[in-house]
Amino acid sequence: MNSFARFRLSQALMTMAISLFLTVAVLVSSAGASSSLLYDYPLNGPPDVVEAFNPPPQPWMPGHRGVDLRGQEGENVQAAGDGVVAFAGLVVSRPVISIDHPDGIRTTYEPVDAVVHTGERVHRGQVIGTLLPGHRHDGVTVLHWGARRGKTAYLNPIFLIKTPLIVLKPLSLPRTEFLLLPTPRNTQRALCS
To answer: Which of 84, 93, 121, 161 has the fewest beta carbons closer than 10 A?
Structure first.
Protein backbone atom coordinates (compact mmCIF):
# COMPACT_ATOMS: atom_id res chain seq x y z
CA MET A 1 0.00 0.00 0.00
CA ASN A 2 1.44 3.37 -0.98
CA SER A 3 1.81 6.24 1.48
CA PHE A 4 -1.21 8.16 0.10
CA ALA A 5 -3.45 5.13 0.56
CA ARG A 6 -2.14 4.64 4.13
CA PHE A 7 -2.77 8.32 4.83
CA ARG A 8 -6.37 8.11 3.53
CA LEU A 9 -6.95 4.91 5.48
CA SER A 10 -5.66 6.52 8.69
CA GLN A 11 -7.92 9.55 8.03
CA ALA A 12 -10.94 7.33 7.55
CA LEU A 13 -10.17 5.29 10.68
CA MET A 14 -9.62 8.45 12.75
CA THR A 15 -12.92 9.90 11.51
CA MET A 16 -14.75 6.69 12.40
CA ALA A 17 -13.13 6.63 15.86
CA ILE A 18 -14.11 10.27 16.55
CA SER A 19 -17.65 9.64 15.29
CA LEU A 20 -17.96 6.57 17.49
CA PHE A 21 -16.61 8.49 20.50
CA LEU A 22 -19.06 11.38 19.96
CA THR A 23 -21.98 9.00 19.49
CA VAL A 24 -21.15 7.14 22.70
CA ALA A 25 -20.63 10.45 24.56
CA VAL A 26 -24.05 11.74 23.45
CA LEU A 27 -25.76 8.47 24.38
CA VAL A 28 -24.06 8.29 27.79
CA SER A 29 -24.77 11.93 28.57
CA SER A 30 -28.44 11.68 27.60
CA ALA A 31 -28.85 8.41 29.50
CA GLY A 32 -27.01 9.68 32.58
CA ALA A 33 -28.92 12.94 32.87
CA SER A 34 -32.05 12.48 30.88
CA SER A 35 -33.68 15.86 31.22
CA SER A 36 -37.06 14.41 30.26
CA LEU A 37 -37.03 12.59 33.61
CA LEU A 38 -36.20 15.76 35.55
CA TYR A 39 -38.41 18.41 33.93
CA ASP A 40 -41.88 18.88 32.54
CA TYR A 41 -43.83 21.73 30.95
CA PRO A 42 -44.89 24.43 33.43
CA LEU A 43 -48.38 24.56 31.86
CA ASN A 44 -50.74 21.61 31.31
CA GLY A 45 -49.67 19.56 28.31
CA PRO A 46 -47.27 20.65 25.63
CA PRO A 47 -48.44 24.22 24.99
CA ASP A 48 -48.09 26.24 21.80
CA VAL A 49 -44.86 28.21 21.55
CA VAL A 50 -45.85 31.76 20.62
CA GLU A 51 -42.26 33.04 20.55
CA ALA A 52 -39.24 30.75 20.43
CA PHE A 53 -35.90 30.94 22.19
CA ASN A 54 -33.64 33.42 20.38
CA PRO A 55 -30.56 34.18 22.48
CA PRO A 56 -28.40 37.20 21.72
CA PRO A 57 -24.91 36.71 20.27
CA GLN A 58 -23.46 38.41 23.39
CA PRO A 59 -24.98 38.40 26.90
CA TRP A 60 -25.46 42.20 26.97
CA MET A 61 -27.29 42.36 23.62
CA PRO A 62 -31.07 42.15 23.06
CA GLY A 63 -32.64 38.74 22.47
CA HIS A 64 -35.37 36.42 23.65
CA ARG A 65 -33.85 34.44 26.53
CA GLY A 66 -36.69 31.99 26.95
CA VAL A 67 -39.90 30.83 25.28
CA ASP A 68 -43.38 32.30 25.38
CA LEU A 69 -45.94 29.55 25.95
CA ARG A 70 -49.60 30.25 25.15
CA GLY A 71 -51.80 30.05 28.23
CA GLN A 72 -55.00 31.32 29.78
CA GLU A 73 -55.26 34.04 32.38
CA GLY A 74 -55.63 32.36 35.78
CA GLU A 75 -54.18 29.04 34.57
CA ASN A 76 -52.05 27.19 37.10
CA VAL A 77 -48.30 27.43 36.54
CA GLN A 78 -46.31 24.45 37.78
CA ALA A 79 -42.68 23.98 38.75
CA ALA A 80 -40.93 22.43 35.75
CA GLY A 81 -38.68 20.43 38.08
CA ASP A 82 -37.77 19.83 41.70
CA GLY A 83 -35.88 22.67 43.35
CA VAL A 84 -35.89 25.59 45.73
CA VAL A 85 -37.59 28.92 45.05
CA ALA A 86 -34.74 31.41 44.65
CA PHE A 87 -37.03 34.40 44.09
CA ALA A 88 -40.73 35.18 44.10
CA GLY A 89 -41.55 38.84 43.66
CA LEU A 90 -41.42 41.83 41.34
CA VAL A 91 -38.66 42.57 38.84
CA VAL A 92 -39.25 45.97 37.24
CA SER A 93 -42.96 45.73 38.12
CA ARG A 94 -43.29 42.22 36.63
CA PRO A 95 -44.17 39.28 38.90
CA VAL A 96 -41.44 36.64 38.50
CA ILE A 97 -40.63 33.28 40.10
CA SER A 98 -37.16 31.72 39.86
CA ILE A 99 -36.40 28.14 40.92
CA ASP A 100 -32.91 26.71 41.45
CA HIS A 101 -32.71 23.02 40.50
CA PRO A 102 -30.18 20.45 41.81
CA ASP A 103 -28.47 20.19 38.39
CA GLY A 104 -27.42 23.87 38.51
CA ILE A 105 -30.17 25.14 36.23
CA ARG A 106 -32.39 28.06 37.24
CA THR A 107 -35.83 28.27 35.62
CA THR A 108 -37.88 31.47 35.58
CA TYR A 109 -41.60 32.04 35.12
CA GLU A 110 -43.34 35.35 34.35
CA PRO A 111 -45.86 36.93 34.75
CA VAL A 112 -47.04 34.70 37.59
CA ASP A 113 -48.98 35.52 40.75
CA ALA A 114 -46.91 33.42 43.17
CA VAL A 115 -48.32 31.07 45.80
CA VAL A 116 -44.78 30.03 46.84
CA HIS A 117 -42.13 31.94 48.78
CA THR A 118 -38.38 32.38 48.52
CA GLY A 119 -36.59 29.42 50.13
CA GLU A 120 -39.53 27.04 49.71
CA ARG A 121 -38.77 23.57 48.33
CA VAL A 122 -40.97 22.66 45.35
CA HIS A 123 -41.49 19.51 43.30
CA ARG A 124 -42.02 18.98 39.59
CA GLY A 125 -45.68 19.58 38.78
CA GLN A 126 -46.40 21.52 41.97
CA VAL A 127 -48.50 24.66 41.43
CA ILE A 128 -46.29 27.71 42.06
CA GLY A 129 -48.77 30.39 40.99
CA THR A 130 -51.32 31.51 38.41
CA LEU A 131 -50.68 33.03 35.01
CA LEU A 132 -51.30 36.74 34.63
CA PRO A 133 -51.80 38.68 31.38
CA GLY A 134 -49.52 41.46 30.20
CA HIS A 135 -46.23 39.92 29.13
CA ARG A 136 -46.81 40.60 25.43
CA HIS A 137 -47.98 43.80 23.76
CA ASP A 138 -50.21 41.97 21.25
CA GLY A 139 -52.68 40.89 23.95
CA VAL A 140 -51.87 37.16 23.80
CA THR A 141 -51.60 35.67 27.28
CA VAL A 142 -48.34 33.76 27.58
CA LEU A 143 -46.01 32.37 30.18
CA HIS A 144 -42.45 33.50 29.57
CA TRP A 145 -40.38 30.48 30.64
CA GLY A 146 -36.64 30.82 30.86
CA ALA A 147 -33.69 28.65 31.89
CA ARG A 148 -30.05 29.35 32.52
CA ARG A 149 -26.93 27.80 33.97
CA GLY A 150 -24.79 30.28 35.90
CA LYS A 151 -25.30 34.02 35.47
CA THR A 152 -25.36 34.36 31.68
CA ALA A 153 -25.55 30.91 30.04
CA TYR A 154 -29.16 30.99 28.87
CA LEU A 155 -30.64 27.69 27.69
CA ASN A 156 -33.63 26.81 25.57
CA PRO A 157 -36.02 25.49 28.24
CA ILE A 158 -37.75 23.24 25.70
CA PHE A 159 -34.53 21.18 25.63
CA LEU A 160 -35.01 20.47 29.34
CA ILE A 161 -37.95 18.33 28.25
CA LYS A 162 -36.98 17.25 24.75
CA THR A 163 -33.39 16.18 24.40
CA PRO A 164 -32.23 17.41 21.00
CA LEU A 165 -31.53 14.64 18.51
CA ILE A 166 -27.94 14.83 17.30
CA VAL A 167 -27.23 12.91 14.12
CA LEU A 168 -23.66 12.53 12.94
CA LYS A 169 -23.32 12.39 9.19
CA PRO A 170 -20.71 9.87 8.02
CA LEU A 171 -17.68 11.16 6.22
CA SER A 172 -17.56 9.89 2.65
CA LEU A 173 -14.81 10.04 0.12
CA PRO A 174 -15.47 11.77 -3.21
CA ARG A 175 -16.85 9.30 -5.74
CA THR A 176 -13.76 9.63 -7.91
CA GLU A 177 -11.36 8.45 -5.20
CA PHE A 178 -10.67 4.85 -4.29
CA LEU A 179 -9.37 3.49 -1.04
CA LEU A 180 -7.11 0.44 -1.16
CA LEU A 181 -7.52 -1.97 1.73
CA PRO A 182 -5.56 -5.15 2.42
CA THR A 183 -7.55 -8.38 2.15
CA PRO A 184 -6.87 -11.60 4.08
CA ARG A 185 -4.84 -12.98 1.18
CA ASN A 186 -2.52 -9.98 1.21
CA THR A 187 -3.96 -8.68 -2.04
CA GLN A 188 -5.42 -5.29 -2.78
CA ARG A 189 -9.00 -4.53 -3.63
CA ALA A 190 -10.55 -1.20 -4.50
CA LEU A 191 -13.53 0.08 -2.55
CA CYS A 192 -15.45 2.98 -3.95
CA SER A 193 -17.06 5.36 -1.48
So the answer is: 93
